[in-house]
Specification:
With 235 residues, the chain is of the alpha/beta class. 39% of the residues lie in helices and 22% in strands.
Length: 235
């Protein structure tokens, strides 16, 4: 179904994750070193990888630096970060550098496989029969959901899968305010979880689409509620 690179230095964890992914029908390969992972993800074979499961703590380069470098060369390659239980700063740091999702250790391998499948579904090109519009526009901002492409004034922007999904959802529902829990369920498919995930992604999207992220004119904070896309010229 998909080629997954698992970057994890604990051989037991890596073996279990690889086994569960392969049982689910994926092709899974392991890597135990951050420096080696960065080389693989910047090399000629990177295009054959559909998703990366990336541990935060690694020998060589840590997971944050690997993800940071990956985002420069492959902004739309999905990444699921593995973080330590209870380390909120680590989770937020992973999201800040562009991880699409995270799973906290210790974790259920079945849960990880479900997260992998969820991220892959959302990163797949939209079906031709999808009733949702493939082209969304507000002023000079254009999102092509089928091509996974975002442009502003004709210049292409590098958004991760989750960032694009969040932006597209808000644009489709311009003028409606959503709570963070509603956005988490609609975009991430989670009915529970750390809502700071939404906050971080909104901040990252603003940094890429707003003329002045400190004074946003598109994604507005609705105090006591959540966020709303203001779109006077939405299409």
């Amino acid at each position: 179904m998909a080629a997954v690179l698992v970057v994890e230095d604990d051989p037991t964890v890596s073996e279990v994750v690889l086994s569960y992914l392969e049982r689910a029908g994926h092709t899974a390969h392991g890597c135990s070193d951050g420096t080696r992972a960065a080389e693989l993800l910047s090399g000629p074979d990177a295009g054959a990888i559909d998703l990366v499961v990336l541990d935060l703590m690694l020998p060589g380069l840590d997971g944050l630096e690997v993800c940071r470098r990956l985002r420069r060369s492959h902004p739309d390659l999905p990444v699921i970060m593995l973080t330590a239980l209870g380390e909120e700063d680590d989770r937020i740091a992973g999201l800040e550098v562009g991880a699409d999702d995270y799973v906290t250790k210790p974790f259920s391998p079945r849960e990880l496989v479900l997260r992998v499948d969820s991220v892959l579904r959302r990163s797949a090109p939209a079906a031709a029969s999808d009733p949702a519009p493939a082209i969304l526009s507000i002023d000079d901002l254009v999102v092509d959901t089928a091509a996974h492409r975002v442009t502003k004034k004709g210049v292409e922007l590098n958004l991760t899968v989750r960032e694009l999904e969040l932006l597209a959802f808000l644009m489709r529902n311009a003028g409606t305010a959503f709570t963070r829990s509603q956005l988490m369920e609609a975009v991430w498919g989670w009915t529970f979880g750390d809502q700071s995930t939404v906050t971080v992604h909104v901040r990252r999207v603003r940094e890429k689409i707003e003329n002045d992220p400190q004074k946003p004119t598109l994604i507005q904070t609705v105090w006591g509620v959540g966020y709303r896309m203001d779109a006077p010229d939405a299409a």
